[in-house]
Amino acid sequence: MNLVVLIVDDELLIAEETSIGLELEGYQTLIAESAGEALDILATRPDVGVLVTDVRMPGVDGIALANQLLASRRNHDLLSVILMTGHAEDIPPKGVAACIAKPFSMSTLVKLVAQSISDVRTKRNNAIDELETSLLLL
Length: 138
Hints:
The chain is an alpha/beta fold and 138 residues long. It contains four helices and five strands, in the order βαβαβαββα. α3 (62-72) links the parallel β3 and β4. The longest helix is centred in the C-terminal third of the chain and has 32 residues, at 106-137.
């Protein structure tokens, strides 16, 4: 399964630029302009493996979104979270793969996304293998 990158930013131009940069590197992306829209997408898209989200957004911010997702995902649908922030005082929650300061270079984000996709793919495959092994033991 090809894993998709979901970009969440209330500033559509930044989300689109980020999406284009990742797509030029071969990644499939989706865009959400809010945490609520991101949750709607995630409810129907198990292929999302990486969430790249802005920290400061109206309503539910990126840190609250990350906390909710990291606490609620199961092993077979794990995802990696990369936070984008323009504020040095933003402290990423435990479990976040990376926090990248705006402005950032696309090459830096591409490296983080590549590593995150590799990690998520490995964890999901291990979870499936463990499930299959437990079913065989029944």
